[in-house]
Amino acid sequence: MQLEIITADKTLFSGEIEAVTLPGATGKFQILKGHAALISSLEKGMIVVKDKEGKQEFEVNGGVVEVLNNKVIVLA
Fold first, then answer.
1. Minimal CA–CA distance to 17: which of 60, 58, 63?
2. At 53, which CATH number?
């Protein structure tokens, strides 16, 4: 599954992942390969990315996530 985390001035992350946990408006949720199409707002919190090398965390102040065809795009 492909993930991109983009801010107004740079790309924080771009690559293949196994899972991502996001701070949704109504609580944390996780996206895995094959997830249904989704658009959701994000609250302030941590994005936790799990890839082959381990786990990475990114702090965001809110944003939007789109999931479509095993591609996750986060605009933070």
1. 58
2. 2.60.15.10
